[in-house]
């Protein structure tokens, strides 16, 4: 029940780009995930939602906290995959983890090197690999195709990027989050 409450809080906030709604839902969602993990450290979904929500909180709180929280995202994301290696949500999470860390600006990398002796290692190639695995696990998710397309853009593989961005647009959106991602894919294709 607790990890599902964490998921519901995430899902509500994920329907919009409004940062105030994100704050309203991500923080209590994280508390539910934390309680779920306290009750059962061997729950793949509790580990997954803990990783997702601590990552979202890091983004809300700024660059320094995003970098600090990135270690927790990796630890709990990998633990969730250890417990359930074919869950598309965690495969996607780890894809985004690699993508976002590989995409840090020069200034963000400097902050990371000040916070940690050894900043986290990530790559766009690893991100693409995780997104491909997520597609195999659940081929009807707009987000997997969008992020794989974005990864290929960063890898300078324009042909594959166009292919996956186009595929994300052609899918039937399930909710407003899908519509937002399809809007992003259209903008990237332009």
Question: In short, what is this structure?
Answer:
This protein is mostly helical. The protein is built from ten helices and no strands. α1 packs antiparallel against α2 (19-39), α7 (124-137) packs antiparallel against α8 (142-154) and α8 (142-154) packs antiparallel against α9 (158-170).
Question: Mind explaining what this structure looks like?
Answer:
This protein is an all-alpha fold and 190 residues long. Helix content is 79%, strand content 0%. It is built from 10 helices and no strands. α5 packs parallel to α8 (142-154). It starts with a helix and ends with a helix. The model has no long low-confidence stretch (mean pLDDT 94).
Oligomer description: single chain
| H and E order | HHHHHHHHHH
What structural class do you assign from the helix and strand content?
mainly alpha
Evaluate the radius of gyration: 16 Å
Largest sheet: none
The rounded distance between the terminal residues' Cα atoms is: 43 Å
Strand content range: under 5%
């Amino acid at each position: 029940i607790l990890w599902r409450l964490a998921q519901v809080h995430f899902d509500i906030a994920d329907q919009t780009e409004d940062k105030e709604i994100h704050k309203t839902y991500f923080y209590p969602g994280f508390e539910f995930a934390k309680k779920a993990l306290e009750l059962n450290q061997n729950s793949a979904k509790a580990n997954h939602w803990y990783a997702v929500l601590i990552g979202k909180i890091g983004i809300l709180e700024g660059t320094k906290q995003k970098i600090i929280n990135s270690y927790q995202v990796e630890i709990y994301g990998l633990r969730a995959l250890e417990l359930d290696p074919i869950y598309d949500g965690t495969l996607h999470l780890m894809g985004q983890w690699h993508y976002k860390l590989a995409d840090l600006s020069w200034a963000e990398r400097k902050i990371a090197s000040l916070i940690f002796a050894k900043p986290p290692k990530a790559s766009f190639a690893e991100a693409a690999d995780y997104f491909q695995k997520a597609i195999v696990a659940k081929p009807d998710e707009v987000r997997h195709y969008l992020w794989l397309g974005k990864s290929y853009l960063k890898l300078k593989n324009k042909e594959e990027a166009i292919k996956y961005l186009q595929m994300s647009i052609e899918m039937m959106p399930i909710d407003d989050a899908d519509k937002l991602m399809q809007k992003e894919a259209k903008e990237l294709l332009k």
